[in-house]
Structures are given as C-alpha cells and as structure tokens.
Design goal:
This protein is an alpha+beta fold. Helices cover about 30% and strands about 30% of the residues. Strands 6-7-5-4-3-2-1-8 form an 8-stranded mixed β-sheet, sandwiched between helices. Helix 1 crosses helix 2. It is globular and about 35 Å long.
Length: about 180
Amino acid sequence: MSRTTFTFRPLDPMRDAELLHAWVTHPKAAFWMMQDAKLEDVERAYMEIAADEHHHALLGLTDGEPAFLMEKYDPAHRELVGLYEPQPGDVGMHFLTPPTDTPVHGFTRSVITAVMAHLFEDPATRRVVVEPDVRNKAVHALNAAVGFVPEREIEKPEKTALLSFCTREQFLAATATAAPEVSA
C-alpha cells in the first residue's frame, strides 16, 4: 500500500453518532460489543467518553473524511483498573476500522501504525497498553506487527482479554520501514 496520510480530530458524539452507529453495529465490529446498540446508545456512550478526562475518542481522517475510530484512555483510571500494575506513561488504546465493500490491502495495518505514531507523538507516552479479546486473532497479528508483546490473559467483566504492551522502542523497531505519515 502506498503511504497514507492520516489526520485526527476529536469525535463529536452528536455529529458523528450516526456514522459510528453504522460502524459499531456491523458484524465486522463484533469485538466492539455494540452489535445491538441503538443510535441513542452510541450517542450516550460517546458523550460519556467526551465528558471523561481519562478517556478520549478521535476520528482518523483521510482527505478530511472519517476513516477509522481511535480511543485512548488512562489505564490507571479506566478499563484496566485492578487488572495490572500501571506504570507512568502507560496509555490504553482501542481502534476500529469501518466495514467496506472495497477493502484496501494494508489499510488496517496503516491505521494501527498511524494510531501508535499519534500516541507516541506525546513525549509522556512511554508504553501503549491493549486488551483485545483473546479470540480476536486478526488484531493480535496487527498488534504484533507494530511491536506489541503479549503479557498474559486477564479476565474483564465482558471478555477474556490478552493484555499486551508496546514501548516506543518496540514500535519504532517494528515499523522502521513502513510508518505512515501522521499530522495532528
């Protein structure tokens, strides 16, 4: 895939809810666990994130058009509280690429690479933490491709998750030749 330039903007829960609803309720997004969500449920969920100082949702854009969803959170306060010992500089991350009738080879890998580059633009970020469902083999492969190392399975209320970490150095080593362009 050719180099892709992504930009990011904060998600607007009201303006973007319809788009997100189509993304998170699609069968492709089964691991997002919102398959039965109504539009109002999506609005409410993302309004809660917008009001949360420890959780942020961003849209990744290509040529100004929404191309993917990214969430970042502080694992000392959200998602992983009590499930591991957070370190200073830990940032939790989720990402979702939407369904498409015309898949582009390498797009999802470009997305996760851009998400990671965006997170590591903040010098305070020392390590990215993820906790995907243990059954989500596709995302495990993507995580490995950008430098994540699995630590162990953990039990969350909604799933058994694979706790994995990626330092800045691991990310840079894994993506030295294929990093997409990212601009704020």
